[in-house]
Design brief:
- The structure is a single chain.
- This protein starts with a strand and ends with a strand.
- The strands form two sheets. The chain has a three-stranded antiparallel β-sheet with strand order 2-1-6, with no helix packed on it.
- It is globular, with a radius of gyration of 12 Å.
- By secondary structure, it is mostly beta strands.
- 13% of the residues are buried.
């Protein structure tokens, strides 16, 4: 999920358009932090879980709520 445009269906903000930042330093776009949809892995009791962050409200959400634009 890097370097692509996504629509995030945030329960708080509704549809939020954004970009998943690239991890390749040779492929850096002009992605502002306001448009960046961050992805991170967290530890839970059931094991590691992946979450994406809404660029508007900062809420961590299930990655199933993000779809390619």
């Amino acid at each position: 999920m890097t370097g692509e445009r996504f629509v995030l269906h945030c329960p708080t903000c509704g549809k939020v358009s954004g970009v998943a930042p690239t991890t390749d330093p040779d492929d850096i776009d002009d992605v502002s932090s306001e448009d960046a949809i961050a992805e991170e892995v967290f530890e839970s009791e059931a094991g590691p879980v992946s979450r994406v962050r809404c660029p508007r409200c900062g809420r961590w959400l299930n990655p199933d709520l993000a779809e390619p634009e």
